[in-house]
Write a structure and sequence with these properties.
The complex is a heterodimer of chains A (83) and B (252). Chain A is α+β, with helices and mostly antiparallel strands. Chain A has one domain (3-81): Phosphoribosylformylglycinamidine synthase subunit PurS (Mth169, Chain: A, 2-Layer Sandwich). In chain A, 29% of the residues lie in helices and 28% in strands. Chain A has two helices and three strands; from the N terminus they run βαβαβ. Chain A has a three-stranded antiparallel sheet, covered by helices on one side. Chain B has one domain: 3-Layer(aba) Sandwich (Rossmann fold). Chain B is built from five helices and eleven strands. In chain B, the strands form two sheets. In chain B, strands 2-1-3-4-11-10-9-6-7 form a nine-stranded mixed sheet, with helices on both faces. Classes of the chains: A alpha+beta (83), B alpha/beta (252). At the A-B interface, α1 of A face loops of B. Chain A: This is Phosphoribosylformylglycinamidine synthase subunit PurS. Chain A: It is found in: Cytoplasm.
Chain lengths: 83, 252
């Protein structure tokens, strides 16, 4: 069954405390090539049947109203992934 | 809930005989923790608490609403994000924005629910130090003209408990400047900023002053012997007496 993937990231101007903690832990494991980490969220919405334009529009609407908070986050990607 | 207080003296200062008839709703979501304490604070202040369930579709005849702290829906997705769409929240949003200007207080997770509801601007993110923090916190009352702060003096410092992990208040600079200019920064952290909040902001109000949200917990500082050891330990009671005096004043 097809899925709609929604990716949400903290806004660039907002310090991401979780990403900051992760970037601090990486060098301790020998991963020294990464100067910054930002942590986001990926949602997978499963659709029973075909993904129509209307269903995709619903997913975009849900992404803006519930899955993200526009004060602190951006919806950076909404795409259909066939199973 | 009947035997008051457990120890020490009850210190309710609101003595108006009409206050006991005032009804203050306390909302419970799945995962709410502090609804019993909030109801007890309402009773200690001299009013009658009314239990409101998140799935309810009516506020009844309550004169004000408290959205207490906790971890509604386990803080899944974002703190307050799912609670914001509970059936009762649409009633609270309508009543807060109506001409009647229903007084609404959001404490901790309740504050997060109010920002997710867009009743208050900005948002809370994880504390800058990433840890859960629990301490007695000094706050300065920056605005004593809201529905929930009238019994405090402007600039008064009070100590109430603070306990959260997602307590860092953020908003864009334009919003912060507007909040400051309009006197809508109601509380500021004094001496120590426990979570990295912008401009030491602990609590804010909407433009009309009927909706107030803050991260610290006034409902845990209402009873002698149980509150912070700094100060009287009951310096949170003023929130609840303030709204009662406001309700009685409006009904004169």
């Amino acid at each position: 069954m097809p899925r709609i993937v929604v990716d949400v990231m903290p806004k660039p101007e907002i310090l991401d405390p979780q990403g900051k903690a992760i970037v601090g832990a990486l060098p301790r494991l020998g991963f020294t090539a990464f100067s910054s980490v930002r942590q986001g969220k990926r949602f997978e919405l499963t659709v029973d049947g075909e993904v129509t334009e209307e269903i995709l529009a619903q997913a975009r609407d849900a992404a803006e109203t519930l899955l993200s908070n526009p004060v602190i986050e951006d919806v950076v990607n909404v795409e259909v992934v066939e199973a | 809930m009947t035997e008051l207080p457990l120890i020490g003296e009850a210190v309710a200062v609101a003595a108006h005989p009409r206050l006991a008839g005032a009804k203050i709703g306390v909302v419970t979501f799945p995962g709410t923790l502090d609804d019993r304490d909030a109801a007890r604070a309402v009773r200690l202040a001299g009013a009658t608490p009314v239990e409101l369930w998140h799935a309810g579709t009516t506020l009844g005849d309550v004169d004000a609403v408290v959205i207490p702290g906790g971890f509604s829906y386990g803080d899944y997705l974002r703190a307050g994000a799912i609670a914001r769409f509970a059936p009762l929240m649409s009633k609270i949003i309508d009543a807060a924005n109506s001409r009647a200007l229903l007084p609404v207080l959001g404490i901790c997770n309740g504050f997060q629910i109010l920002t997710e509801s867009h009743l208050l601007p900005g948002s809370m993110i994880k504390n800058d130090h990433l840890k859960f923090m629990c301490r007695d916190q000094v706050l300065r009352v920056e605005n004593n003209t809201t529905a929930w702060t009238g019994d405090y003096a402007a600039g008064q410092e009070i100590t109430v408990p603070l306990k959260n992990q997602d307590g860092q208040y953020i908003a864009d600079e334009k919003t912060l400047d507007a909040l400051e200019a309009e006197g809508r920064v109601v509380f500021r952290y004094v001496g120590f900023n426990p979570n990295g909040s912008r401009r030491d902001i602990a609590g804010i109000s909407n433009a009309a002053g009927n909706v107030v949200g803050l991260m610290p917990h006034p409902e845990h500082a209402v009873e002698a012997g149980f509150g912070p050891e700094i100060g009287s330990g009951t310096e949170g009671l003023g929130f609840f007496t303030s709204v009662l005096n406001k309700i009685v004043g409006d009904n004169k």
